[in-house]
Give the backbone structure.
Amino acid sequence: MTLTDRFLKYVSFDTQSDELTNLTPSTPGQMIFARFLEQELKSMGLKDISLDENGYLMATLPSNIKDRNVPVIGFIAHLDTSPDMSGRHVNPRIVKNYEGGDIVLNEKLNIVLSPKDFPELGNYKGDDIIVTDGTTLLGADDKAGIAEIIGAVEYLQKHPEIPHGDIKIAFNPDEEIGQGAHKFDVDKFGADWAYTMDGGEVGELEFENFNAAVAKVTFKGRNVHPGYAKHKMLNSMRVANQFVIMLPRWETPEHTEGYEGFYHLTSIKGDVEETVLTYIIRDHDRDRFERRKKELEHLARKINNEFPDCVSIDIKDQYFNMREKIEPVMYIIDIAEEAMKKVGLTPKVVPIRGGTDGAQLSFKGLPCPNIFAGGLNFHGRYEFLPIQSMEKASRVIVEISRLVAEKN
């Protein structure tokens, strides 16, 4: 089975996650997909295959080096796709030898993937590009990563002349709702370090991510007949609006890039009696991150000074910047960069403007930077995957495996 065939098979599984179910995995489709992969790994003859009740699938490709010990490395990808758009009945097609210009995804619905809107598309002229039909996401995030890992393992099996130590692989549920690493058994996995194959465009290598928190700000109001409300009514929606505009307008996702942090209002639910604002707070710098949380608490106190006992705020940390856990073992980044160069790529070391399972895993004792999976425009109908990028990612896995064995 080719890498492309494998990927196209995987996207036929509907594996959207759902943060509202409070289950692990959060949706049954993820377990169905995990069981399919379990059988595939068994047919390949891998060892130590396990699939637990929470949908965590692990396996081992045993070392082919008998005369010395080699570090145990791992490769990880996630089973689920984003709940932001449907992943059911994905209908992909391949645009062979892309020549540039617009790609009509769905003529009937007038859905067009255009370099005018997505200029990065122009970087892939001459490539074969997998696209959607415009009615679903594609699922390259992260089924491309799964295909790349299994494809690399299969390649190593067919080429025993390539030295490698024990290689651990794992596929976990619910990354897209921030829970992918919650029940990941690091000790059971047994790797010295690992890489998530969950990055974006070809060549990306990431070992920095946002520090992240979620804040729920609740405003209590008092409803009175509006005709007789003077000095009596307290409209929680109006007070909530006052809170919103007190935050700096330029420190939002649509006005920031690179290492710039932000406050992001993700939800407003309310009426006169009660309004709830949900924010996510993001910053690469830990000190600035802590100051952002304190600023929200400060604004809540200011509102309460004007409207006593109106506002309550609950802030919960979600994950932290893995850089502090990767810096002591920067050789794992050096190896990944060297592997990329060996397959003809120029590494692009960039910060993740988001989260990754690797961040949580790094803080659980498994250093775990992130490598590109090759897809672009994740989480929506315009997602696409250059096949050549997917092939390069799989080759990077092979090269990392070889380099670890040789350098040791």
User: Anything to note?
Assistant: The radius of gyration is 23 Å. The mean pLDDT is 96. The longest helix spans residues 286-306. The chain has ten helices and 17 strands.
